[in-house]
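During the no-cost extension, the postdoctoral fellow (Dr. R.K.) reprocessed legacy sequence entries with the updated structure-token encoder. One reprocessed record is reproduced below for audit purposes.
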Amino acid sequence: MNDIASPALPIDDTATPAGGEAVSVTRLAPFTNRDLPTPLACGVDTLDLGLYIEWGSRWDDLSEILDDAKEEAKGTPGAPVADGTFLVLPGGKQPCYRWHLQWPEFHLYLGRSAEPHGNTPNGYVSLNAKTLWSLGVPGAVALVTNWIERLEGKVLSAKPSRCDLAADFRLPAGLSLPFLLAHRVPQHVTHSHIMTGESLETFYHGAKKTPVQLRIYDKAKEVLQGGTKLWFYDLWNVEPEACVWRIEFQIRRERLKEFSIHTVEDLVEKSGGLWRYLTEDWFSLRAQDDSNTSRRTVLPWWQVVQACAEQFGPSMKLTRTLDSASADSAWYVNHIAGCTVGFAAREQLKSLDEALPVLVERVRAYFERNDFRRKLTVKSIQLGYPVSSGTAEPDASVPGMESEA
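Re-encoded structure tokens follow.
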């Protein structure tokens, strides 16, 4: 993870407009140095690409295998293919993509056509957040390309369809809805929010389907829910009790095209400039020191956010391989422990030594009726942990997966 230094910034959120007299306004209490956010990580958190794929002579064979697996997957989370390397799910992505394939690192959707037609892609990929933070954008895309090549396809080009740029900040004081509503510029844009009691969880600026939407939310709370994203604490290098908030912009194809972002290389090269546009021109938090919002002073709080622009682009490379196994396992242990207490109470078992053997016996009996290995394969891929160790021979029934002599 890149270390991001917080710039030295003034803390006064008032300013004197041209003309010499300050405008009389009602303002919230200014932030202090203690309240300024500490940047923890910046990067691409979501990336969807339209893929233009040219399939080889064995496309008909692969199509048949995918159809068989899709039929097998009906009523299940997915059918394992290629010795559990990936899943074929029962649905597709209407109306363009018949098949939905899932790897631990990404979801791949494929259309029926053996080659793209004009500007219409015949493939679509959604990269997982962990893949992007671990490998970076070029590495994550290379992973997808390599897999398509193993299936005897060739990626001719890849066009960004959606990109989420995110920056995470340690913010002990948290954020409030009144603060964001009072200081956001522009103020006329549609907004919504999610609250827990009087505490803000998520603030949205812009509608979901618009070319750009901003989300400001309590990322630490999201990470702790479900126990599957605890690897973020390795990325942030903070203790689990830390208060971490995320500034995240969702940018769709329409806006990306306006900045001539047509390829993955364009996105990598221009992501810093895109962050500057989003945090300076498209949205900002400003002091209430002028009746004209465009002339208001940018809050020191938001200056820290804007300064993260230099952390995007080719200079930002995450070299760490994030491993969440130990943290995520702890969540499951806690969950199982809680269920064990409930089980013992219902069965009128009086001690842990008495309860555990009975519970293990019941679990073992359950998996005698249900395929543990298959369930393990499906769940491992869903959580990002492939069952295959990499040493097993590929499944020769899948085109491009045959063993080399």
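The first helix runs from residue 59 to 72. Residues 46-160 form one domain. The remaining legacy entries will be reprocessed before the final report is submitted.
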